[in-house]
Amino acid sequence: MASETAPAIILNVDDNEDVRSFRTLLLARSGFEVVEAATGGEALSLLKRQEPELVLLDVNLPDISGIEVCRRIKSDSSTNSIPVLQISAAHTTDFDRIRGLDNGADNYLSSPVDPDVLIATVKSMLRLRRTQTALQREIIERERSQQALRTTHSLLRAIIEASPLAIFALSSSAVVTSWNPAAERVFGWLQTETLNNTLSIIPDDQKDNWSKLFTSVLWGEPITGEETVMKKADGSLVDVSVSAAAFDSDSAGSGVIVIVEDITHRNQLQAQLRQAQKMESIGTLAGGIAHDFNNVLTGIIGFADLLLSQINAADPFYNPIQQIRKLGDRAATLTRQLLAFARRQLLDFKNLNPNAIVTDSLKFLGRIIGEHIDLKIDLEENIHTIHADVAQIEQVLTNLCINARDAMPGGGRLTIETRNTVLDESYVSNHPGAKAGSYAMLCVTDTGLGMDKSTKERIFEPFFTTKDFGKGTGLGLAMVYGIVKQHGGLIYVYSEIGKGTSFKVYLPAVEVPADAVIPSKTDFPIGGTETVLVAEDENAVRELVVAVLESLGYKVLTAKNGAEAIQLFEGRADEIDLVLSDTIMPKVGGKELFDVVRRRKPDLRFVFMSGYNVDAVGENAGAIANVDFLQKPFSPVVLGRKVREVLDNRKE
């Protein structure tokens, strides 16, 4: 629809050239832009290419009657909002007018039409349409705002109710006005026992300090992570970390919202062995970082989506905001990995057969580790059932296999084993954190480089990596550690320099049969070892593509534009299996790069990445053999699957 200041576009449909030309001249003099059609078919065709603000439609047309044209316009969801003004023949009856209106016409004039009446009617219908459109927009925006408020209120309530942290609110006079379920669990006081009463969780020797702290917070000095002790209903003390801030609402008045984390267990761990203490402390830190960072990402991603929904692709800010959205998703993936390490994921536990998980994973593990590594499987026949999340155990197996692959750059043997194991009291006494009982053990062993003692001590720490800068995030094994711990399991690493490494994962056995195996729906992209040439002038996109492909095992050659890509291709054409190129780049674009590649190596697969359509590289590009397209924006999963799909099609 045209803007309020732009001239309205009117489709003038009449088979009589003189009449049509006269009306076009009349409308043009009144400031309208006019598009003409001589037949009903021509009018319907024009409507598919251009949306006018009003259709001026003669009833008697040579191919399709004006009434039928009107019916088709009004029955098509893409055009039914366009007002139609039908103009009848000279001797039209009231029945004809009724038929026209019944078939969707918004107004009806009989020939001959007075020019002033025609212009006045057109202007009136356009004013009505624009008024209706404005009202519809206002209604939609108002409903959207109200829904957003309801959603936010519901979300905040759900977060507070589901939070593992004790959250309660105090009035300005320190009376409890809200008390969440976690507060009941931490302190043992029920909500009904605390509401409208003063706090009963402050020890006598802390009351003066608490009173001063409460007053300073109420006056606008928030606190974060203040460590102290509080009293439970049974009189025992609990170590806590307190965060608090003042609030002021029209309905509830002023007060203080308090968030309390029970840190008793963390403090107890500090008295244990140094390694266990360090790992638990890092876990808490990683979880806190991920949680806080997710709050930031919620704003980044949410506001980016809002902005993207309110501007069009031609706006100069569209692409930068789109980059923010993509990078926000990448950061969200990082926080999910941190949450996995911190054991704060929501898991879908089922009774599973570990052998079935290994067997089902083989279809993509072979591609991940590459052909230079010999994969050996050794599964115990009557393996114990485990109570676990199948997707998370698949992730553990995948990350361990990727780690093993990277430890054997020159090839070697990777062995995956399962065994029934009983950990006795003797074993438990030598392994802090272990519990006696029956376990199913999953073991991944490689014949790679091995690790020294200092590396083994830090191997599960987040962001710790022995890989070159930019080659890994250092979160793969941290994720494994967090997932295993969240399943109540144990993981140990045995390694010797030059001999290899063995990771043993112990998962508690359950005395029930395994549930029916449901294939995992994880969106883990299948990798490979082929060589991919990436040509992309956008640094963020190029770096994202390279990171994703290298993490999947591919060898990646990078170019900032088509000219660099051609230079790389000319020198290394024989080793390149796939070209992944942006369509529009400085110096030399994707189409020119494709032409060079096609002349030198006709069968080489080529994938165009583009925020535009196929026409950006030629009208018939979609029909060219060995060419595929990847529409921006895309996720790493979509990228990984596309590359694997294209390479597999090449092999077929």
Describe the secondary-structure layout.
Blueprint: E1 9-13, H1 17-29, E2 33-37, H2 40-49, E3 54-58, H3 66-75, E4 84-87, H4 94-102, E5 107-109, H5 115-162, E6 166-171, E7 176-179, H6 181-187, H7 191-194, H8 207-218, E8 223-231, E9 237-249, E10 253-262, H9 264-269, H10 274-310, H11 318-341, E11 350-352, H12 354-369, E12 373-379, E13 385-388, H13 390-406, E14 412-423, H14 425-430, E15 437-446, H15 453-458, H16 476-486, E16 490-496, E17 500-510, E18 531-535, H17 539-551, E19 555-559, H18 562-572, E20 578-582, H19 590-600, E21 605-610, E22 627-631, H20 636-651
Parallel strand pairs: 1-2, 1-3, 3-4, 4-5, 12-14, 18-19, 18-20, 20-21, 21-22
Antiparallel strand pairs: 6-7, 6-10, 8-9, 9-10, 11-13, 13-17, 14-15, 15-17, 16-17
Helix pairs in contact: 2-3, 10-11, 11-16, 12-13, 13-16, 18-19
Number of helices: 20
Domain unit count: 5
Question: From the coordinates shown, what is the CATH architecture of the largest domain?
Answer: 2-Layer Sandwich
Number of E strands: 22
Low-confidence stretches: 271-277, 517-524, 611-625
CATH class of the largest domain: Alpha Beta
Report the sheet-strand fraction: 15-25%
Q: Work out the helicity level.
A: 40-55%
Mind telling me the C-alpha Rg? 34 Å
Q: Write out the CATH superfamily name of the largest domain.
A: Histidine kinase-like ATPase, C-terminal domain
Given helix and strand content, the structural type is alpha/beta
